[in-house]
What we know:
Layout: E1 7-13, E2 19-20, E3 29-32, E4 37-44, E5 50-56, H1 57-60, E6 69-74, E7 77-84, E8 93-96, E9 107-112, H2 147-150, E10 162-168, E11 174-175, E12 184-187, E13 192-199, E14 205-211, H3 212-215, E15 224-229, E16 232-239, E17 248-251, E18 262-267
Parallel strand pairs: 1-4, 3-9, 10-13, 12-18
Antiparallel strand pairs: 1-2, 4-7, 5-6, 5-8, 8-9, 10-11, 13-16, 14-15, 14-17, 17-18
Amino acid sequence: GTPDAPRQIELQANAALQFTDTSGAQVTQIEVVPGETVEFVIDNTAGFDHNFWIGEADVLMGPSAETEVGIPTWQSGVQTITWTVPEEGVDGLQFACTVPGHYTPMHGNFVISSGAPAAGGDAGAEPPAGDGGSETVTEEAPAEEPAAGEAAAAGGTADAPRVINIDANAALQFTGEDGNILTNIAVTPGETVEFVIDNTAGFDHNFWIGTAEELQGSFAETEVGIPTWQSGEQTITWTVPEEGAEVLQFACTVPGHYTPMHGNFVIQG
Length: 269
């Protein structure tokens, strides 16, 4: 691409906290030629905050970080930025969304191409070894039952609730005391549990209990949960209903957090 005719790269910033190409494939690297000019056309299809910045990893990892080249935070629709690729140092640059909590799943590397790279679609090639790319997306359940669930049989009472300690971390994960991602919690109908949630991220998280339909909305709230807070511990005590607990979930409903930060309650007799 040239200043008069830049190469156009179309990306979507979606609600699953991914940059994707026009085919829907997640983009974790983009090939560029030193000295060429490219125009990024970024469509925020999430309906909540995203941004797009180009810089070094140690800069972009900071919450709400900004650099000299990029698009400030916006909530929906298309934004564009034109960039001339530097002649040197491209291999140390990344693109990223730096909205708090978004960097880990929404960053990638610029890779030097020996010739003119293909437009847009080839941007979503496999990430370079060791980068991690999209490996941090946490939507799949671990094979083993979380520790919190294994303790469910002991039950809890109103006078002595069963305590479940959970971390809400900067990687947009709920984790148990053993550090494993929590995608389900085993409970006994009628027991009382006390959730102790430690927000270690340093930015907004919340914790709500409800059906999937109730929890999927941005900043959704239910009758049981912890409103949004930024750091430290919050607690909530809940008596598991005698019926219907199997359709309930726990989730963070901060915009963009539901997909990686929700799980199911599983009935244990």
